Every structure is written in C-alpha cells, then in structure tokens.
C-alpha cells in the first residue's frame, strides 16, 4: 500500500487556477465517491480551501494512483491535464505523510502558523469518513494529524503572535486596556484594513462601533455589520470624545485629524485615547504624540510588530518541526505493526476454530447439558483460550516494532503452524483487489487484526 498526495497550493498555483479548481462542502461528498472509484484508489480524503486542493489517497500502485488522481482533477473541472499539471506536486509515502502533518500544523499556510487550517482538515476528513471512503491507513493518519495540530496550538506559540496589521493593532490595544469589553470604537473611513481592525476589536468585546465616512451611505453599510452607528464627518470631534479607540483609514491626501481636534475632544478626559492610523499618507497629525493620555500608532509601528512576530513564529516553527518528526516516527511504528495483524488474526481464528470444535464434541458426549450449562462451559473454555493467547500476542506485537520483526514473525508462524490459514487469506485478498466493485478488502486483515488486538 502507498499513501499519495496530489495537489497544489498558493505557492505552486496562481489564484486564477485555484479559483477554478475548488469544491464547496456540498460538492465534496459526491466528488469523494468519484475519486474513490478511480482505478487503484482504495481510500481517499480531499482538503479543499481557498489556497489549496490536496487529494490524499491510498493506492496499491503508486504510479497508477498518482496518474488517476490527476485524471480525476481534469474530469472534475473540465480542464486539460496539461493546463495544470505543472502546478501540481505529487508526494508519496513518507513525504506525503509529512506534507499532511506540515499542513495541519499551519507551516504550509500563506500566513505561517495560522490556526484555521486545523479545523478545515478536521472537517474535510470528517466528510470523507462519513462518506465511507476512508479505511485503516487514512483513518490512522488523519487522526494523528489532527491530534498533532491540537498539540501544536496548545504547546507552542506559533499562532499567538499577530502577523497582520489589523491583529497587531489589537495586540497594541491590549497593552493599554486590560479588556476591550464595553469600549467604543470609532472607525474613520471604510477601508478594508480599517474595517477588519474594527471587526477584531468588536469581536474582542467592544460594545459599540461608530463609523464616519465621506459617503454616509458607505458608512451605514459598514456600521450595519457591527450593529453600529453611521455618522457624517461633521461630527468628528463629538465622535472622538465618545470613543476609546479610533481607527483611521480614509486615504485622504492630507491629515484628517489634527492636534487641535484631539486636544479639544480629550479635554477633562480620564480614560486614555488609543489612536490607530493605518492610512498612507497618514490621517492623523504626528504632533498628537505630545498630548497627555493620548496614544498614537501609525502603519510603521504596526508593521514593526508584524515583522517581529513573524520572526517569533519562525522561531516557534523549529519546535513544530521537531514535533512533526516525532509524529512521523509514531506513524511509521504503527505501520510496522500492521505486518503482525494478519498473523494475530490467523492465530485467533485457529484458536477459536479449535474451541468451537471442542465445544461440539463436548455437547455430543454430554447430550443432557442444559442451555445454561453449555453457556457456562463455552464462557470458561473461551476464557482459557484468551488467557493462553494474551502473552504470545503481546510479545509478537512488541517484536513487530523491532528491526528483527521479519524473523520473529516467521518463527511465530512456524511455531503455531499458521501457514495454511495465511495462504488462504492472501488468496482471498488478491481476489478482492481484482474486483473494482469491492471496498478495499486488501485492508480487511488489518481491520480484523485491530479487532483481535482490542479483544
């Protein structure tokens, strides 16, 4: 079995292509079934976001699996393979596993360490699992990836430092206000970054957003998103007087807020006033720095914080890299134990066959046994079987994770004379793989073995 990822992201494909090749959540389920029924593809999960599309598949033939993953994309979107194949990356086995771990931890995102991707991976895997197109390998892989992503978020600070101007403004504000709860935000202008900053402040607890704009209709449109109030620019002084935080981004050629306006607005004021100027050219007169109880930050201040925080995230990414390598080792250890699964299954089946034959002989020799007595006999004789198997199964599982696992498995098979059962099982698997209509029954020994381990 081979794990293969075929896909593209913001680094390998232009936005025009990413816009064409994406799935909505409602489209994902049916598309997964079409992918699953492509030749040589036994399991699949698709991660589809605005910045990436990745197909994770399990295939019995690596070259065939990757080819039909590309063919699937061409058919789904009606785009000739030659038009997008140069933007794809194809990774197999260890590289594919590392890719998923890297994506889930936010190291492959447009914004290093962003946390939303973990929820997207978790949701896309949930859809695939519910659609029944995953199996032993991808179930284990994605379970470990999600667990790793959560651990990274809780044990590192890679997602804690603001790396956008709007978040940096909020981070600065926290140094002046222990909480934004109950604060009033004045948004001057209706630019995208200014609106986003106001949104973050509102979500952090600000009680009211006042929007001033040259066009009152535009101010009303933005204010509506925050259940706020739109006002004309003529009410600037009054609005500053009411505000705790002013965010300005008008795009005007000269300063909109001068020192006299702010000095008038903050007269007899007790609470500090926090001014964020994210406009270029600047909206707010730098002379305001001289006023008491007024704190002014411009775009350079915010960019300085962003650059520092990007550096801090890059430092944290080294820790995440170590965690990824640890998870790689764990997954490889799990893969190694799969070799023991058919052997464990064969031994348990042989033991249960012997137990069943023994019970039938007892019932023939003791025909007067009541149903209750039969149940008691069956229960206690089966308990003997399970107790006898416990230690051998435990030891072979331990040995299967060592460098001498092949010799240990061969010896185990010979000691318990399991050759015939394993040969029959192998023949059954090969027959199932030849039938494209079947679910990937080549994985059934692993599934059965896991059940044996749990019991």
Task: Describe the SSE topology.
Layout: E1 2-9, H1 15-20, H2 25-36, E2 41-49, E3 52-59, H3 62-77, E4 89-92, H4 94-104, H5 116-130, H6 136-155, H7 165-176, E5 184-188, H8 192-203, E6 208-212, H9 216-224, E7 229-231, H10 236-242, E8 245-248, H11 259-265, E9 273-277, E10 294-298, H12 299-337, H13 341-365, H14 371-399, H15 405-415, H16 419-434, H17 444-454
Parallel strand pairs: 5-6, 5-8, 6-7, 8-9, 9-10
Antiparallel strand pairs: 1-3, 1-4, 2-3
Helix pairs in contact: 4-6, 4-12, 5-6, 6-12, 7-8, 7-12, 10-11, 13-14, 13-17
Q: Overview of this structure, please?
A:
By secondary structure, the chain is α/β, with parallel strands linked by helices. The protein has three domains: 159 residues, 2-Layer Sandwich (Beta Polymerase, domain 2), CATH 3.30.460.30; 140 residues, 3-Layer(aba) Sandwich (Rossmann fold); 118 residues. 57% of the residues lie in helices and 12% in strands. It has 17 helices and ten strands. The strands form two sheets. A six-stranded parallel sheet has the order 7-6-5-8-9-10, sandwiched between helices. Strand 5, helix 8 and strand 6 form a beta-alpha-beta unit. Helix 4 crosses helix 6, helix 4 runs antiparallel to helix 12 and helix 13 packs antiparallel against helix 14. The longest helix has 39 residues. The C terminus is likely disordered. Keywords: NADP, Oxidoreductase, Porphyrin biosynthesis. It catalyses: (S)-4-amino-5-oxopentanoate + tRNA(Glu) + NADP(+) = L-glutamyl-tRNA(Glu) + NADPH + H(+).
CATH T-level fold name of the largest domain = Beta Polymerase, domain 2
**What's the CATH class label of the largest domain?**
Alpha Beta
Strand order of the largest sheet: 7-6-5-8-9-10
Strand content: 5-15%
Query: Counting H and I runs of at least 4 residues, what is the number of helices?
Result: 17
H and E string:
EHHEEHEHHHHEHEHEHEHEEHHHHHH
User: Span from first to last CA?
Assistant: 26 Å
| Oligomeric nature of the chains | single chain
Which consecutive residue ranges, at least 5 long each, have pLDDT under 50? 436-455
CATH architecture of the largest domain: 2-Layer Sandwich
How many structural domains? 3
Shape assignment: elongated
Residue-averaged pLDDT: 87
């Amino acid at each position: 079995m081979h794990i293969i990822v075929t896909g593209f992201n913001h680094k390998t494909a232009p936005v025009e292509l990413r816009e064409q090749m994406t799935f909505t959540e409602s489209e994902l389920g049916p598309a997964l079934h079409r992918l699953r029924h492509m030749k040589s593809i036994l399991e699949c999960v698709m991660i589809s976001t605005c910045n990436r599309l990745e197909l994770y598949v399990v295939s019995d033939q690596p070259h065939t699996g990757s080819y039909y993953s590309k063919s699937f994309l061409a058919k789904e979107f009606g785009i000739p393979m030659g038009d997008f194949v140069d933007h794809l990356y194809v990774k197999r086995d260890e590289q594919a596993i590392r890719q998923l771990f890297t994506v889930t931890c936010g190291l492959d995102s447009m914004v290093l360490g962003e946390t939303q991707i973990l929820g997207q991976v978790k949701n896309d895997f949930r859809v695939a699992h519910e659609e029944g197109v995953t199996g032993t390998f991808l179930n284990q892989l994605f379970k470990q990836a999600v667990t790793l992503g959560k651990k990274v978020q809780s044990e590192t600070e890679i997602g804690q430092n603001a790396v956008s101007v709007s978040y940096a403004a909020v981070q600065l504000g926290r140094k002046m206000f222990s909480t934004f709860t109950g604060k009033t935000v004045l948004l001057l202008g209706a630019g995208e970054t200014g609106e986003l900053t106001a949104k973050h402040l509102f979500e952090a607890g600000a009680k009211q957003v006042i929007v001033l704009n040259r066009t009152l209709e535009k101010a009303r449109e933005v204010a509506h998103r925050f259940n706020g109030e739109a006002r004309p620019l003529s009410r600037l002084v009054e609005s500053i007087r009411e505000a705790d935080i002013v965010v300005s981004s008008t795009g005007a050629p000269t300063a909109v807020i001068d020192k006299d306006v702010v000095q008038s607005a903050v007269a007899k004021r007790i609470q500090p006033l926090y001014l964020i100027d994210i406009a270029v050219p600047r909206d707010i007169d730098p002379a305001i720095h001289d006023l008491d109880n007024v704190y002014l930050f411009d775009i350079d201040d915010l960019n300085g914080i962003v650059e520092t925080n990007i550096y801090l995230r890059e430092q944290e990414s080294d820790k995440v890299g170590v965690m990824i390598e640890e998870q790689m080792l764990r997954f490889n250890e799990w893969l190694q134990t799969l070799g023991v699964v058919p052997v464990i299954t064969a031994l348990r089946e042989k033991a249960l066959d012997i137990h069943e034959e023994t019970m039938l002989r007892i019932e023939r020799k003791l025909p007067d046994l009541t149903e209750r007595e039969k149940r008691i006999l069956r229960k206690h004789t089966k308990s003997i079987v399970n107790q006898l198997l416990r230690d051998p199964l435990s030891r072979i599982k331990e040995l299967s994770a060592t460098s001498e696992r092949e010799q240990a498995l061969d010896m185990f098979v010979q000691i318990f004379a399991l050759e015939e059962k394993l040969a029959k099982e192998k023949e059954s698997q090969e027959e199932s793989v030849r039938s494209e209509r079947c679910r990937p029954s080549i994985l059934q020994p692993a599934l059965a073995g896991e059940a044996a381990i749990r019991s």
